[in-house]
Design goal:
Radius of gyration of chain C: 24 Å
Largest sheet of chain A: none
Oligomer: heterotrimer
Largest sheet of chain C: none
Distance between the termini of chain A: 52 Å
Structural class of chain A: mainly alpha
Number of strands of chain C: 0
């Protein structure tokens, strides 16, 4: 018991590294917010573009979306950070982490939105078109409002999974929670900073996980 | 008012419509009957290009709607359609369903659209349910809202695709009443339906379709009492019972 | 004319640079044993983590199905707790924390333990939702024919539950396989790690690109399958 207390919950270590962990929390939150905004917006745009059913465009969208859904995020981050400079593309760690995870979220979001659009009954399209609404008007006023409702639970879950993986940014030296904690751990030869990091993530994400349960029961199986 | 000339429609190798000629005059109510798969619904859906005919012409009030120069969205608001499964928008209220096209296609301001929408709902006897959501309405009420949605655009022709076949029997009457009233106000109507009683009482003309062609047509009394073709007799015997 | 020629030349130089840096066969030939070794480790990790995670998840979900209040409270707490931790944080905490507890285990075991805690919570939540989706009537019918509670679960409830949540199960399995790349951070010699090592040896990022392509070849079929399954289940709603 003492051993656990000394190595995982050392109060002196906690007090000493709390400010740097809090700095990390802000970086993590910034990164996560930028990813969520850009990723969901891009995914939405791609799904709407796909609804136009232009063959070559759709193939391209499916290809890109598939690649970013299949690759482990950490592989994307490492390729962007360590391989792209060789062909003249250099980005900061923050930009790499943001861009990689934005593309991953956008890909999953596109697939979710697209599935939502497809699941709206064909009769809805026909009814709207029969009253003279155009393709875009039908998409905007009739199909998307119904599709988006269906997509809320899976999109919430996916967003949580991907914002959590901002921890990967530590691999490319973004000063987020885990980076600070690992440095502090090495410095103090004590695991307490890692415990603090775990608690920090818990404080950020546990409310979101609980929220996702509520969202699931609220929007889950209703039409 | 509605002229079909040599309308054909193929789905791959299957020929659903084998050259249909049909002229519906102003204020006429034409009824189409026939077994399932005979092409009735396809014919109806060709009249507003929800289905693109493979060949032929569809002329509405003098305009060939298959012509590439025609703005089909502009034409469609003159051609009301009522679907078997209502297809009300579940995320909009009854009034919202009726006013969407008024606001987006006719570009009416909100209050004017609402006024016209309420009038249309009043016309189908649902003025007091304007703010109800589709899932709070019975099937019959939903179908009447769908009719109001089409009528609010003041169409020249109304197409009905089996408007009562998804309804419980006790709800059919309300929808037929609305259709009867439309007929009295002089609406031009093309109806695909199995409501033989209604056809006999209200239709000007009945068409019997089978295997993608019009087998015979005539006044309801003649079709129902002395059909000329064996296929018509066979069909009527099956639907009306012995 | 001169401008076009210049541009063509610049383009071909850029292409050459791209091929030399990303698709360098010479480099690939030299380091392919490293990559294969990494791939073997990745597959080994998957074959251990996925079945163990599924087993752990099943235990959690079946335990939940008995509806003992305090136990369910505990299980939900476990599931949500580990759904809140980024797997990488859990991995590093376990990996660097265990030795401080005086527990000396091979790094593979530490990695497995971390992944298992995380994976079992996700599989547990999926199986739980699946079991909850099967009506009481199924279990009662099975019990009425003399099956024990466990038999009713195994032979009647679970097969239906699994079918109901199959897309989620496959989706989670895809995520678990992707997680294994995180083990590179604690220097476990799996595919990504070996790609990095090979890049360091050759000063050329080709091995990294090759590793990415191997992941793609491994996981793309699962992604395609998922798209199809998800479309079908959502359409049914």
């Amino acid at each position: 018991m003492d051993r656990i207390a000394a190595n995982f919950f050392d109060l002196d270590v906690m007090a000493k590294y709390l400010p740097s962990i809090i700095d990390g929390v802000w970086v993590t939150i910034h990164l996560a917010v930028f990813i969520v905004l850009a990723g969901i917006a891009l995914g939405f745009v791609l799904a709407v573009a796909r609804a136009f059913q232009i063959r070559p465009v759709n193939w391209l969208i499916v290809l890109v979306v598939d690649v970013f859904r299949a690759l482990p995020p950490i592989v994307i981050v490492i390729v962007f950070y360590f391989a792209l400079p060789f062909v003249g593309i250099s980005m900061s760690g923050f930009v790499v982490a943001w861009l990689s995870l934005t593309l991953v979220l956008a890909s999953f979001a596109e697939e979710i939105f697209w599935t939502g659009i497809l699941s709206v009954d064909r009769g809805q399209w026909e009814a709207a078109r029969s009253t003279g609404l155009g393709f875009l008007q039908t998409l905007r006023d009739v199909v998307l409002p119904q599709a988006v409702r269906l997509t809320i639970p899976p999109l919430t879950n996916r967003t949580i999974v991907i914002t959590k993986s901002t921890a990967i940014a530590s691999v490319v030296a973004v000063p987020e929670i885990l980076t600070h904690a690992s440095a502090a751990q090495a410095f103090s030869a004590n695991t307490t900073p890692l415990t603090m990091a775990a608690i920090a993530y818990l404080v950020i994400f546990l409310p979101l996980v609980v929220l996702s349960r509520w969202v699931e029961s609220r929007f889950g199986w209703k039409r | 008012m509605l002229d079909l000339k040599g309308v054909r429609k193929s789905f791959g190798a299957i020929e659903a419509l084998k050259g249909i000629d049909l002229a519906v005059t102003r204020q006429e109510l034409v009824f189409i009957i026939g077994p399932s798969g005979s092409g009735k619904s396809t014919l109806l859906r060709c009249c507003n290009r929800l289905e693109e005919p493979t060949a032929g012409r569809v002329i509405i009030d003098g305009v060939d709607i298959l012509s590439p120069r025609v703005d089909i969205n502009e034409m469609r608001r003159h051609i009301g359609m009522v679907f078997q499964s209502f297809n009300l928008y579940p995320h909009l209220t009854a009034l919202g369903n009726v006013t969407l096209a008024l606001r987006r296609v006719l570009k009416l301001p909100r209050n004017e659209a609402n006024e016209r929408g309420r009038a249309a709902l009043d016309g189908v006897g649902l003025a007091e349910r304007a703010d109800a959501w589709p899932n709070e309405l019975s099937g019959g009420q939903q179908q009447r809202v769908a009719i109001a949605r089409a009528l609010a655009l003041q169409p020249k022709v109304m197409l009905f695709d089996e408007p009562t076949s998804a309804l419980d029997p006790e709800l059919v009457g309300g929808v037929l009443d609305v259709m009867r009233r439309m007929r009295e106000t002089g609406m031009t109507m093309l109806v695909v339906s199995h409501e033989m009683g209604f056809a006999r009482e209200a239709a000007d003309r009945v068409l019997f379709m089978d295997e993608g062609e019009v087998v015979e047509e005539g006044a309801p009394a003649r079709i129902f009492e002395s059909p000329e073709h064996a296929r018509t007799r066979e069909f009527l015997r099956r639907v009306t019972g012995p | 004319m001169g401008g076009v020629a210049l541009r063509v030349e610049a383009l071909s130089r850029a292409m050459e640079g791209l091929v030399y840096n990303f698709f360098n066969l010479e480099v690939l030939l030299k380091v392919h044993p490293l990559l294969l070794k990494g791939l073997r480790m990745t597959l080994q990790l998957c074959l251990l983590v996925v079945p163990l995670g599924i087993a752990g998840g099943l235990v959690v979900a079946v335990a939940y199905s008995f509806h003992v209040r305090w136990l369910n409270w505990l299980l939900i707490a476990y599931i949500d707790l580990f759904r809140s931790f980024p797997p990488l944080v859990l991995l590093i905490l376990v990996f660097y924390g265990l030795p401080f507890l005086g527990v000396e285990v091979p790094s593979l075991v530490a990695v497995l333990l971390a992944f298992l805690l995380n994976t079992a919570s996700y599989y547990g939540e999926i199986f739980r939702a699946g079991i909850e989706s099967i009506g009481r009537g199924q279990r009662e019918a099975a019990r009425s024919t003399g099956l024990s509670g466990l038999q009713a679960m195994v032979y009647v409830v679970l097969p239906q539950a699994v079918r109901n949540v199959l897309p989620d199960l496959i989706s989670n399995t895809l995520e678990v396989i992707k997680f294994t790349a995180l083990a590179s951070v604690v220097a476990l010699p799996e595919l990504l790690r070996m790609g990095r090592v090979a890049q360091g040896l050759t000063y050329n990022p080709t091995p990294l690109i090759a590793a990415a392509l191997i992941y793609l070849a491994l996981l793309w079929p699962i992604v395609r399958l998922l798209s199809r399954l998800e479309r079908r289940t959502m359409a049914k709603r």
